[in-house]
Amino acid sequence: MDQPSRSAGTVRPGGRTARVRAAVLETTQDELVEHGFHGLTMDQVAARAGVGKTTVYRRWGSTAGLVVDLMTELANQSSPHTDTGTIEGDLRANALSVLGAISDGRLGATFQAVIAAATCDEQAAHALRSFYLRRIEEWANVVDLAVKRGELPEGTDGAEVIRAISAPLYYRLVVTREPVTREVAERSVTRTLAAARAGAFVVPGSGG
């Protein structure tokens, strides 16, 4: 998983529909950062974005609909995986990108608000899951490349490797509320890479 743009307001330029969507999504993110999911209201988003309430209700339907579209846009803005030429370099780049995202005042607050929403709203949970599955799938490619180069065993599950990199960071962010530092990110890479090289992520029956 890597760091998308800090703001959904960088939606690609286009006609009036695209401009309305950009304004609404940026405002949705502003409201999430300032008030959290439970403080998010359709009327406030419409007023702050300068868009008619009827338009917002017709297009997004609910606050959960706003969150779903916001997460979709943030996923679309995310950069492709890094290719440093080594699995160690690629996994470090992934870990530091995750660290940068969750440490950013705006983007980190957005993720925390949506994670909180996902505990009680199925649409928010679906949006969050879709976002992370897309990013995991993208970064799993670096593991596949490492297998081809002979750096990791055949049959290594790339998605599980990427999950293992970011899991300690999100645990500290969301569960224990401890500082998430570069040292924590680096340790996660070291431990995950050692386990991957030892075959801990090889899928049973894959022939690895």
Automatic annotation (TrEMBL):
PROSITE patterns: HTH_TETR_1 (PS01081), HTH_TETR_2 (PS50977). The keyword Transcription regulation applies. Keywords: DNA-binding, Transcription, Transcription regulation. Residues 41-60 bind DNA. InterPro entries: DNA-bd_HTH_TetR-type_CS, Homeodomain-like_sf, HTH-type_TetR-like_transc_reg, HTH_TetR, Tet_transcr_reg_TetR-rel_C_sf, TetR_C. Residues 18-78 form the HTH tetR-type domain. Pfam families: TetR_C_11 (PF16859), TetR_N (PF00440). It comes from the Bacteria. The keyword Transcription applies. PANTHER family: HTH-TYPE TRANSCRIPTIONAL REGULATOR RUTR (PTHR30055), TETR-FAMILY TRANSCRIPTIONAL REGULATOR (PTHR30055:SF148). This is TetR/AcrR family transcriptional regulator. It comes from Nonomuraea marmarensis.
